[in-house]
């Protein structure tokens, strides 16, 4: 049995944290494989380097040297054995030498492609994986790096900056790597964040995509558990930056975790659940700063708690797009057409509510202006009046059984009216684990604090770690 341990960039920020991260998979802790993000801040540096080289034709040598030095400083801090340091230095020469040549090509031509950009950005995870493997070896634990553009994490095509693994192909192609990992007496260290296109070029899984990578690897290895180590204690009853009384949630169902991620809790990448859909593996969110804290365990099936609601989450950047016109409710296919027009520009609809005269689309507020333009220019006779209201927040209450339990909605209504917060929209029934409401952004903090106090009471214990 093997555990998969995912380490985010915040777990790789200085010498002590790299050693601690390596220690999670070290001797005496059972068989484990690691999936790593880039060292904290490195993906942003690579992105910046890529953009300045592409748009300003700058010489990439100084920035590559800076990124390399950052890794060398960590290596010097962490590694005692000279042969391990020399081995890592040779790896760094390979990774950063290639990076510099690729960037130089972009700088000279002023041209690039999505897969070239992906190749540049993938260097952060390559360097951190070899750093972690070296830290393990330095401590006497054998380790082997698997670069994930070479072991079967092929996407089905599409955007190389935001791909998803073709899981059917992966189950077949990854088998030799899985067998080697399971048979070997060493820790496998996988690069997070990227795989390959169907024709073998680098493809990313989107920013913060290493959670997703870890889920894919856990699937491929038949892991008994997936541990995701972060700089937060786990899922909380609300965002502790908004609600000081927020506390850790010990257990959640996958559906609840997915609803919370979807509605704004930025703890797990929303795609994480896809590779695990038919695998009952438990997922643990663990606090890197407080190893003794149990974190949040996410199980395939959930349990109801007496208060039903387990968490409130707030997305403060939403807009509602109102599309009205005569007889809009009687037009077959109108929502499909609106959806296709927006999808063609990559605009995601969070939720939809319709009446006979109006279709309300809830979107990220950053996309509202463009959505108004796209629909306005479509020349559809029925789409007469298109307007966006942008100063809104979407508040979700999440908990298994929320739809079927009488009285929860009533309590939410009365708490909000008692707090003087007007609800513009309330939606229940789309999921049995979430209800959500649209309120003015100015009332959002008051609303979430009032609801939290009502459902969870005041908290006089210690603040959860990391908050
Ligand atoms: N390093 C990548 C990023 O910062 C992937 C990750 O951290 O999950 O987006
Ligand atoms: Mg990151």
How would you describe this structure to a colleague?
- With 467 residues, the chain is α/β, with parallel strands linked by helices.
- The protein has a domain at 2-231: Carbamate kinase (3-Layer(aba) Sandwich).
- 38% of the residues lie in helices and 21% in strands.
- It has helices at 15-23, 42-56, 61-78, 82-109, 114-121, 123-138, 167-173, 175-183, 210-221, 254-262, 334-344, 365-377, 408-418, 444-456; strands at residues 3-7, 32-36, 143-146, 187-191, 194-196, 202-204, 225-230, 251-253, 283-287, 296-299, 311-324, 349-354, 358-364, 385-398, 423-431, 434-440.
- An 8-stranded mixed sheet has the order 3-4-2-1-7-9-10-8, with helices on both faces. A 6-stranded antiparallel sheet has the order 12-13-11-14-16-15. A two-stranded antiparallel sheet has the order 5-6.
- The longest helix is centred in the first third of the chain and has 28 residues, at 82-109.
- The radius of gyration is 24 Å and the shape is globular.
- Aspartic acid binds at residues 9, 37-38, 43, 124, 192-193, 207-210.
- Aspartic acid (ASP) is lined by residues 9, 37-38, 43, 124, 192-193, 207-210.
